[in-house]
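Open question from group meeting: does this chain pack into something compact, or does most of it stay loose? Before anyone orders reagents, we agreed to write out a predicted structure and look at it together. Recording both the input and the output here so the notebook holds the full record.
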Amino acid sequence: MQNIIDHFIIKNQLLTKSSKVIVGVSGGADSVALLHYLRTSGYDCLAAHCNFHLRGEESNSDEQFVKELCTKWDIPLEVIYFETEQIALERHISIEMAARELRYEWFNQLLSAHQATAICVAHHRDDSVETLLLNLIRGTGIRGLSGISQKKGNVVRPFLCVNRSEIEAYISENNLPFVTDGTNAETIYLRNKLRLELLPWLEEINPSVREAIERTSNNLRCVEQIYLTEINKQRAIVAKNEKDKTLISIQKLIAFSEPSTLLFELLQPFGFNRNVCENIFDSLHSIPGKTFYSSQYILVKDRNDLIIKKKKRKCLSNS
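Structure tokens returned:
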């Protein structure tokens, strides 16, 4: 497995051994395997663990495990605590989304504070397949059907070239300890239901279904690049930045052949979901003053423009 990952990192220019990398470590098998691989491959690692306070004593036990593991492996560790449920309520988003936002916001703070060049997370090939199916079931645009990317900004995923069974074999070969999240076996969660029930059923129809889905995802990722190139051209015409706000010209927007699709692509980076974008689109011909919210931004429908500003937010506390 090591040779496969080495080649994948070099081919996609994900990491260099001359600089520090932030490694997200939950204590689960995937993240422990990633930390072990990076450490034994000679990368300068800083482990980062989030305690989201979502699973009671189990969350604290995971934190203690990660602390002991990093001490044993002589890897520096940063830990942060979040009251995730409360923050999800304040931001009007799901707990899962709040945890994701908090995690990556903090990872980026660590990136700057420690002058690191990359944030490494342990998503693997099966995660990408599950994400595509999850997005398809929920209803998604082309981005949701292109799976998980190996690199997005400073976030890199060295394990996207291997699957869950290969990671499990790596764990066994190297006798690595890890903790198991008890909720992973609960099919009340949609992703778990896909993993434990839907994918095994699909494999009865096509034993190579995971590979087939991955090929489809790769094909759509190429299409996505063409699509985004055109979106960026249109964004330059329709939107402009002014100091602390972004303006989207209503007149220029509705002049395009598919204005609702373009509006969604313009607003998605600001955290507005598809339902909210549809409501905003429906308001384009209404009176000025309507206001819409995402977790981080406020959008006001003015006479000629949609005006987007960032919300004020409390600073994160680090321990």
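Observations to bring back to the group:
The domain at 2-126+146-186 is CATH 3.40.50.620 (Rossmann fold).
The first helix runs from residue 2 to 11.
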